[in-house]
């Protein structure tokens, strides 16, 4: 929570007066596909909290001329994800998507196919996202 929730909140709060004095601007919060997809750790919960915070800040800061965009991405091909055996987005593609989204006034940018799929599943039953929740229904003969 300190890194993924309070860090971005405190940095944003520190820069808001400067951005307002400069006539407005933009804040980009980097979320994760884990904003919408839990795992067995607190990481997903911290990213979900950041997503909610971003939505709240967007409403709070808009009157001061500050737009807020949430960038959602799964794994990015960086040193941090070097040990992860999963598809990874090219960092350049993520940066281009983020800047294109900001230029277009997007509230959210979904930077890769994994993230787009996860978000598309949010209105489905939980079993669609969490296969481990599926229960095997025993058949009984009548």
Q: Which key phrases capture this entry?
A:
disordered C terminus, 46% helix, globular, mainly alpha, Rossmann fold
The largest β sheet comes out as: 3 strands, parallel
Rg computed from alpha carbons, rounded to a whole number of angstroms:
18 Å
| Order of the strands making up the biggest sheet | 1-2-3
Structural class: mainly alpha
Write the layout of secondary structure elements.
Blueprint: H1 2-21, E1 25-30, H2 43-61, E2 66-72, H3 91-104, E3 108-110, H4 113-120, H5 126-129
Parallel strand pairs: 1-2, 2-3
Helix pairs in contact: 1-2
Q: Concise description?
A:
The chain is mainly alpha-helical and 142 residues long. Helix content is 46%, strand content 11%.
Describe the protein in words.
The chain is mainly alpha-helical. It has one domain (2-119): NAD(P)-binding Rossmann-like Domain (Rossmann fold, 3-Layer(aba) Sandwich), CATH 3.40.50. Helices cover 46% and strands 11% of the residues. The protein has helices at 2-21, 43-61, 91-104, 113-120, 126-129, and strands at residues 25-30, 66-72, 108-110. It has a three-stranded parallel β-sheet with strand order 1-2-3, with helices on both faces. The longest helix has 20 residues, at 2-21. The protein is globular and about 55 Å long.
């Amino acid at each position: 929570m300190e890194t993924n929730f309070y860090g971005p909140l405190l940095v944003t709060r520190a820069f808001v007066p400067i951005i307002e004095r400069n006539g407005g601007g933009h804040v980009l919060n980097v979320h994760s596909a884990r904003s919408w997809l839990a795992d067995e750790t607190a990481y997903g919960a911290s990213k979900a909290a950041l997503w909610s915070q971003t939505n709240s800040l967007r409403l709070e800061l808009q009157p001061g001329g500050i737009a807020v965009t949430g960038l959602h991405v799964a794994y990015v091909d960086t040193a941090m994800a070097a040990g992860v055996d999963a598809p990874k987005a090219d960092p350049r593609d993520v940066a281009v998507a983020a800047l294109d989204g900001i230029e277009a006034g997007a509230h959210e940018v979904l930077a890769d196919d994994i993230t787009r799929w996860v978000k598309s599943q949010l209105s489905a039953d939980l079993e669609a996202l969490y296969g481990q929740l599926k229960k095997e229904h025993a058949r009984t003969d009548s």
